[in-house]
Design a protein that fits this description.
The protein is α/β, with parallel strands linked by helices. The protein is built from ten helices and nine strands. It has a single domain (4-290), classed as Aldolase class I (TIM Barrel).
C-alpha cells in the first residue's frame, strides 16, 4: 500500500504546511492553546519555539510487533512535550529537553537513511508541538524518495483542528489514551481536560485511517491505541476500554501496556510509587475481552 502523503498534490501539502505555520503564530496546536507566537521564538508550555529539536534518529525494535517487523521502526524522538506526566519514562527528553536543533532538510535526510536501513515506517515520537515543521519535513523527504508510512506516535492530548490538517499525511496514528479521569489527568499530567480532548482526537484519527491494517505482519495504515495500566486503577482503564469498544471500534488494535515503573517524580506520590501488580494487568485484559476487544493484547493470558 502506497503511503498516503504520496497521493497529495504539491499544492495540497503546501496548503497544509501554510495553515499549520499560521497556527504557530498564535499557537493552538494542542488543547493548551498557549497563544504564543512561536514563529518569533516565543515559547509556551512545551518550551519549544520555531526550531525543530530532536534527541534521536534510529531503528527501534521495542515498539509494537506490526511496526517493528524484521528491520525495526524508524524512530525519531522529538524533544519536549505538551504533557507534564510526572512518571514519564523519557523524562530526560520530554521534560529536561535533551536534544539538538536540526533543520527540516537534515531531518528529511535522516528519514531517508532509516528507509535505506530497511525500517518499515517513520515513527514520529511526541510530534504534536512540532507538527508544522514535521509536515514540511515529510514533503521534502517525499520529494527525495521517501516511500514508507508515517506513524504519528503521540500522547493523545491533541487539538482536533491540528489532526484534521494531518489527513492525507499520516498513515498510522498511535495515540495514548492515558486517563478517563480528569482528577488523575490534572494531578499526574497537568491536563484536566485530557480525556475530552483525547476522545475527540482519537475519533477523528479513526475517521481518517480506520482500524489497523496489517499485511504480511507489517502495519500499513490505521489506528493503533496504547493504554498504560497504572497502579490502583488511577488510569480509569475500564472507562477507557469501554470508550474504545463502543465509540471507536471493537476491531481496534489496543496495546494494553504493563511496563509502568515509578520514574521521574512518581515517587513523590505514594499511589504511584510501585510497579503495577500482575492482577491489575490481568484485570485490564479481562475487561477488554468482556467489552469485545480482541486485537493488540495477549489473548492467551
Amino acid at each position: 500500500m502506497k503511503p498516503s502523503y504520496l497521493d497529495l498534490e504539491t499544492s495540497e501539502i503546501e496548503e497544509k504546511i501554510s495553515r499549520l505555520y499560521d497556527i504557530l503564530r498564535d499557537c493552538t496546536l494542542c488543547p493548551r492553546e498557549c497563544r504564543v507566537d512561536r514563529t518569533r521564538g516565543e515559547k509556551g508550555y512545551c518550551k519549544s519555539g520555531i526550531e525543530l529539536l530532536v534527541s534521536g534518529i534510529h531503528p527501534h525494535y521495542w515498539e509494537e510487533e506490526p511496526l517493528v517487523g524484521l528491520y525495526g521502526s524508524g524512530t525519531i524522538f522529538l524533544t519536549n512535550c505538551n504533557l507534564g506526566c510526572i512518571y514519564c519514562q523519557n523524562y530526560d527528553i520530554s521534560h529536561l529537553g535533551l536534544g539538538k536543533p536540526i533543520t527540516q532538510g537534515e531531518l528529511a535526510d535522516g528519514m531517508l537513511i532509516l528507509q535505506k536501513k530497511g525500517c518499515h515506517n517513520i515513527n514520529l515520537v511526541t510530534p504534536t508541538h512540532f507538527t508544522p515543521q514535521l509536515v514540511e519535513t515529510i514533503k521534502i523527504a517525499g520529494e527525495r524518495g521517501l516511500r514508507i508510512p508515517i506513524v504519528y506516535n503521540c500522547g493523545g492530548y491533541e487539538a482536533i483542528e491540528t489532526i484534521r490538517l494531518l489527513e492525507g499525511i499520516v498513515d498510522i496514528y498511535m495515540p495514548d489514551i492515558k486517563y478517563s479521569d480528569s482528577t488523575s489527568a490534572k494531578k499526574y499530567s497537568s491536563a484536566p481536560d485530557y480525556y475530552d480532548a483525547c476522545k475527540k482526537a482519537v475519533k477523528e484519527m479513526h475517521r481518517q485511517v480506520g482500524d489497523l491494517k496489517i499485511e504480511n505482519g507489517i502495519a500499513e495504515r490505521g489506528l493503533l491505541i496504547r493504554h498504560l495500566v497504572l497502579p490502583n486503577r488511577l488510569a480509569g482503564t475500564e472507562e477507557v476500554l469501554r470508550f474504545i469498544a463502543s465509540e471507536i471500534s471493537k476491531k481496534s488494535y489496543v496495546n494494553i501496556m504493563a511496563q509502568y515503573r515509578p520514574m521521574y517524580r512518581a515517587m513523590e506520590h505514594p499511589e504511584l510509587s510501585r510497579p503495577i501488580k500482575l492482577e491489575e494487568y490481568l484485570e485490564a485484559k479481562k475487561i477488554a475481552r468482556r467489552l469485545g476487544l480482541y486485537r493488540g493484547f495477549d489473548e492467551g493470558s
